[in-house]
Amino acid sequence: MTLRNDIETIIFSEEDIKEITKRLADELTKDYEGKEPIFVALLKGSIMFMGDLVKYVDTHLELDFMDVSSYVGTKSTGDVKILKDLSSSIEGRHIVIVEDIVETGATLNYIIEFLRSRKPASVEVVTLLDKPVEDRKLDVEVKYVGTKIPEGFVVGYGLDFNEKYRNLPYIGLLKPELYE
């Protein structure tokens, strides 16, 4: 058995992801030229996206990471826990939160407010994937959106189900019988 056998449909190939990532990087390069932003990856899901994204951003920047937990299986608990905080001060700095997927908005809203309390110059969000807005519990503004995705549980390219499938080089819909 291979991991591919657990995937119902591949919705974004490696090439699709690369094209989306380059487009977002071009927008970020233009908007943050000369501002030296701090890109903050939310671990673990966004690590692959962040790694590829910053390769194409053509301006000075810094990297930092936060480890945030709010999921059990396929559902958000609504209880956000910060397992790893930022390594440096963000006061007066431009922050770009790098997210793999925006779903309910609860975790992202919490992180945005948490970071804003530290008085950065700005806080924006870049996400590779955006679930339909009707799935949102909270209205969260995401300035840089890679692509909208269909209903279903997606895995691969950093996205997981119980810590599995992150290592797939593409994004696919997990077969429902594996998580229902």
TrEMBL record:
InterPro entries: HGPRT (IPR050408), Hxn_phspho_trans (IPR005904), PRTase-like (IPR029057), PRTase_dom (IPR000836). GO terms for biological process: GMP salvage; guanine salvage; hypoxanthine metabolic process; IMP salvage; purine ribonucleoside salvage. Its EC number is 2.4.2.8. Its cofactor is Mg(2+). CDD domains: PRTases_typeI (cd06223). The keyword Metal-binding applies. PANTHER family: HYPOXANTHINE PHOSPHORIBOSYLTRANSFERASE (PTHR43340:SF1), HYPOXANTHINE-GUANINE PHOSPHORIBOSYLTRANSFERASE (PTHR43340). Purine salvage pathway enzyme that catalyzes the transfer of the ribosyl-5-phosphate group from 5-phospho-alpha-D-ribose 1-diphosphate (PRPP) to the N9 position of the 6-oxopurines hypoxanthine and guanine to form the corresponding ribonucleotides IMP (inosine 5'-monophosphate) and GMP (guanosine 5'-monophosphate), with the release of PPi. This is Hypoxanthine phosphoribosyltransferase.
